[in-house]
Amino acid sequence: MHPQLKINALYMETLKKYLGVILLLLGVLCLILYKFAMPQNWLLICSMVLEVGGIFAFIFVNKALK
What we know:
Helix content is 88%, strand content 0%. The protein is mainly α. It is elongated. The chain starts with a helix and ends with a helix.
């Protein structure tokens, strides 16, 4: 295996481990945008989807990695 591919695989494994947290933070960012910038319903829906998806991703991905 090429050394660069090993490094990329390592980065992808690390990214997969933190995928749930990243989705949760994106959901929080959508809520902040809703509160302070533009109160539109699609931002609430996006934040809800990101938050729920982030929770499920955190649970299932970390369970699969163990």
